[in-house]
Design goal:
alpha+beta; 2 domains; two-stranded antiparallel ribbon; 13 strands; 18% helix; globular; BAH domain-containing protein
Length: 284
């Protein structure tokens, strides 16, 4: 916070009200032209901290990664000038995909012509691992995405928590303007014990597993990389722990269609009386 250690009696901004800069640099100032890392950055009145989970607006036609990836590749090429094109293991160095992002991943998994589902909301969930400003004062975030259950490949009988998300190794650089709000992704043990202070229940999610880039293989997360502060001033504990159940299945058929399928006779032809009942259910 820029406080001199020689001050004998220091008063915080609450005891001694004064204007405080909420954009906190990480480390000393850097040389001209180098990006300055931050612990927190502001988007209007919204403060985004390192380790936070945020909502992102979905980019269906244009990925925000495209201009940033060009700048990143330019920096890599300039820093590797004079070096060979191959890496230490004899393979070509991997570059960030131009126009990539979560939308490209889903198109590769589900087909280029498949529409992007709006199930579970219109906002992506993103974990912020780093924040910085470039020499022009533009703000950027770096981190990884989370997938919702309907965005993965899994068995039709697999059950999820109603608010479960899954960590995916899809890392991306995005401008801070993409952030639409703050949310909280907790491990199951923390989720059952309480809530971070100020968290809205509709913005709290459970993450117990991670998936690979193909969104097909599931792995249990043993220890969260970004645990929340559970001190009394930052965490509201429940009187009794919750016991959530896995009851959500994005691949299950609606009960109306299940009843309709059971209305068939042994010869494979539908029973007219059962069909009338199904129509009444649909009308209701």
């Amino acid at each position: 916070m820029g406080v001199n250690g020689d001050i004998e009696n220091y008063l915080c901004e609450l005891c001694n009200p004064r204007e405080v800069n909420l954009e906190i640099p990480l480390g000393p100032p850097v040389a001209d032209g180098d990006p300055q890392s931050y612990l927190t950055l502001l988007k209007g009145s919204l403060q985004v901290k390192q380790g936070d989970c945020v909502y992102l607006s979905k980019f269906k036609d244009k990925s925000p990664l495209k201009p940033v990836s060009q700048e990143t590749r330019g920096d890599k090429k300039s820093s590797k000038k004079g070096e060979g094109a191959e890496g230490a293991d004899g393979t070509e160095p991997e570059e960030m995909e131009e126009g990539g992002g979560k939308s490209t991943l889903l198109r590769n998994l589900h087909g280029s012509n498949s529409p992007i589902s709006d199930e579970g909301g219109n906002l992506d969930i993103f974990r912020v691992e780093r924040l910085w400003k470039n020499e022009r004062g533009e703000k950027f975030i770096y981190g990884h995405h989370y997938l919702r259950p309907h965005e993965t490949f899994h068995e039709p009988t697999r059950k999820f928590y109603h608010n479960e998300v899954l960590r995916v190794p899809l890392y991306e650089i995005l401008p801070l303007e993409c952030v639409a709000g703050v949310c909280w992704v907790l491990d199951l043990a923390t989720y059952c014990r309480g809530r971070p202070r100020g968290a809205s229940e509709k913005d709290v999610y459970i993450c117990e597993c991670r998936v690979d880039k193909s969104a097909r293989l599931f792995y249990k997360i043993n220890k969260p990389r970004f645990p929340v502060c559970m001190k009394s001033y930052a965490f509201d504990a429940f009187d009794a722990k919750l016991t959530p159940k896995r009851t959500y299945s994005p691949r299950s058929n609606p009960i109306v269609y299940q009843k309709r399928s059971r209305a068939k006779t042994t010869h494979g032809f539908p029973d007219e009386r059962s069909a009338d009942v199904s129509l009444k259910l649909l009308d209701a």
